[in-house]
Write a sequence for this structure.
């Protein structure tokens, strides 16, 4: 049996993927005074992330939750880079596209350019650690650390141990989430973990209803919101990212042996093919003006 290594001291966290989730996670890390490297392959995404984080911090200042001085310090702790070689630290929190192959390739590269104690945490919504850690030299240092959207606000975090994850690695991921003031639940290493698996029928049945005709997506949203759901399924898919939501559905569908109830919807597939990815692209089920990102129809 392998000896349990000592806990590492976290000084520098690399957050990979500067999209919806990476931005929020980077802000959370920097708020804990961690030196934070936000890495993305797209420079444009990094610029958007810098603006998004600045805007979010300013909103907190305006609401009296944060001083101007602290907001400036948080921003200064984040380094933005599109160079993989600069992504060096004590831990990775990965939030890139929801597909196994690019995540595995990134983990391999990160494992090679970081020390033996380096922790690889994935914010995947659905892909088991058993899959993501394939081909790595140190699969025991891979753990799921699944935040919810928006990461700075939503309290829940799922921590997922793969078959080889060391208890000390899962514990360090959990400790970090606690430091961020999150509520942690340990989830089994199965497709979609807990929340995304339970939530799948909400999207799948709504998309089936829409395809059947007779109801517009606005009607379904309005009805669901009127009975107490915070967001209707279509507004929620736009918030998550229609592409990401489809990737999660596809991954859970395939991971569970293709049960009909989780079959991806042609309506959603068409939207993704057309580039209508939701709020982040300005168009999904609804349209969003570039200035404020709010719902228009
Ligand atoms: N959107 C949500 O509501 C949500 C919630 C929880 C978890 N997640 C998970 O978080 C991850 C990211 O989702 P998101 O919504 O932030 O996606 P996103 O589309 O907003 O951003 C993804 C970012 O990753 C970058 N990227 C793609 N490939 C890369 C690579 N090989 N190396 C570095 N950067 C790369 C892209 O340029 C993009 O900026 C996914 O695994 C998703 O399932 C998403």
């Amino acid at each position: 049996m392998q000896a349990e290594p000592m806990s590492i001291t976290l000084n520098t966290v690399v957050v990979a993927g500067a999209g919806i989730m990476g931005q929020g996670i980077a802000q959370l890390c920097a708020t804990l005074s961690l030196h934070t490297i936000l890495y993305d392959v797209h420079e444009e995404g990094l610029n958007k992330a810098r603006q998004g984080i600045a805007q979010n911090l300013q909103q907190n200042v305006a609401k009296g939750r944060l001083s101007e001085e602290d907001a400036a310090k948080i921003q200064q702790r984040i380094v933005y880079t599109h160079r993989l070689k600069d992504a060096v630290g004590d831990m990775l929190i990965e939030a890139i596209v929801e597909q196994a192959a690019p995540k595995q390739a990134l983990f391999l590269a990160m494992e090679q350019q970081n020390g033996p104690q380096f922790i690889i945490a994935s914010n995947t919504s659905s892909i088991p650690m058993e899959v993501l850690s394939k081909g790595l030299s140190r699969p025991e240092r891979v753990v799921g650390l699944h935040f919810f959207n928006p990461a700075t606000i939503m309290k829940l975090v799922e921590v997922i141990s793969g078959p080889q994850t060391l208890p000390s690695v899962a514990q360090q991921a959990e400790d970090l989430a606690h430091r961020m003031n999150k509520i942690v639940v340990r989830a089994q290493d199965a497709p979609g973990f807990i929340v995304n698996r339970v939530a799948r029928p909400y999207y799948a049945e709504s998309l089936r209803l829409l395809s059947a005709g007779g109801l517009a997506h606005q009607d379904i949203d309005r009805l669901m919101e009127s009975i107490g759901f915070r967001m209707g399924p279509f507004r929620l898919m736009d918030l998550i990212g229609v592409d990401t939501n489809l990737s999660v559905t596809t991954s859970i569908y395939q991971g569970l042996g293709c049960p009909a109830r989780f079959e991806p919807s042609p309506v959603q597939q068409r939207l993704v093919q057309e580039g209508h990815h939701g709020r982040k692209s300005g168009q999904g089920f609804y349209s969003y003006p570039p200035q404020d990102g709010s719902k228009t129809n």
Observations:
- Residues 18 and 46 are 6 Å apart (CA to CA).
- The chain has two domains: 12-187, 197-281.
- The radius of gyration is 19 Å.
- The chain has a mean pLDDT of 95.
